[in-house]
Amino acid sequence: MLKSLQNAFESIHQDSSARVVMIRSLVPGVFCAGADLKERRTMSPSEVHTYVNSLRYMFSFMEALSIPTIAAIEGAALGGGLEMALACDLRICGENAVFGLPETGLAIIPGAGGTQRLSRLVGRSVSKELIFTGRKIDAIEAATKGLVNICVTAGEAHEKAIEMAQQINEKGPLAIKMAKKAIDEGIETNMASGLEVEEMCYQKLLNTQDRLEGLAAFAEKRKPLYTGK
To answer: What total number of domains does the chain contain?
Structure first.
């Protein structure tokens, strides 16, 4: 499955027509429950190291896609499953969702980005609590803590994710890419440097056909037809 996901993300990266990526599970009640612990018992330390590095690389590759990624979460998102959701730009969950990073209970730590992405998303203190205790939280608490963007009725996360993707698709695709770049790169630095990143991204949009189309559509009171040029 890991190789299939990596191949899918690489194909999306090469597809200039792609606008939004959505990740969901077709298994009822489970988004992704993390590693197979029975399999993990048969692996040597070097094999575990290689596997976790592969996960870390894949999630970082997914996170670095220039287009928005949405996780539609129903049921359990635990361990590596939560780490995958954290690597997405947006998270929508059903009220049946359960989240957790239980690795410390196995005498390890989240190794595919969990310690870093969770802390950046919900803050250092909340991240430490959830990782130190390995506590599972429900959808309502996840929404309250800012772990997910939207919580909907169980079974409706996919539909809500489609709705959000459609809203994003109506916007200028180059603008969406530059907005993501400005936010992701700017947040990792100080305010002055972040504003420089924002300026650079804004400048790249000034001479695009889409910007002119947006202004024309507004003046003519019609929906814009963006081409990504």
So the answer is: 2
Q: For this structure, is 35 an active site residue?
A: yes
**Catalytic residue among 33, 34, 35, 79, which?**
35
Burial class (CB in 10 A: 0-12, 13-18, 19+), 41: exposed
Is 165 tagged catalytic? no
pTM above 0.85, yes or no: yes
pLDDT in tens, the chain (229 residues): 677 888 889 989 999 899 999 999 999 889 988 766 677 778 888 888 888 898 899 999 999 999 999 999 999 999 999 999 999 999 999 999 999 999 999 999 999 999 999 999 999 999 999 999 999 999 999 999 999 999 999 999 999 999 999 999 999 999 999 999 999 999 999 999 999 999 999 999 999 999 999 999 999 999 999 999 9
Active site residue 179: no
CATH number of the domain at 206, please.
1.10.12.10
Domain co-membership, 51 together with 86? yes
Annotated catalytic, 219? no
Catalytically annotated residue among 103, 157, 182, 214 = 103
